[in-house]
Amino acid sequence: MLLRRPKYRRFSYEPRFYNPDQDRAEKFRRRMRHEREAHRKPRRSVIIWGVVLILVLYAYLYLSGVMR
Asked: Rounded distance, CA 24 to CA 4, Å?
């Protein structure tokens, strides 16, 4: 109790310019961008898995002597 405890500083923030129509449009754009990116990501993983599978098959066939 020798030291004083700091008090929380409170403030209120009011945006200077607020346009509800623009806010709705921005939320819609963000949601659409997020959905579009979510659909694109699995394609990359499928391609990567395909390349890995082809490399594994090639290595297996090469090491087993079929491709020599």
From this structure: 46
Q: What are the angstrom distances between the C-alpha of 37 and each of 3, 47, 62?
A: 52, 16, 38
Give pTM, 2 decimals. Answer: 0.39
SS3 10: coil
Q: What is the pLDDT along the chain (68 residues), one digit of tens a residue?
A: 578 887 888 888 877 887 888 889 999 999 999 888 877 766 667 889 999 999 999 999 999 988 76
Q: Token pair of 43, please? A: 């394609």
Three-state DSSP class for 39? Answer: helix
User: ∠ at Cα 33 (30, 39), nearest 5°?
Assistant: 140
Give the phi and the psi of residue 22 in degrees, each rounded to 5.
-65, -35
CB 62 within 8 A of CB 68: yes
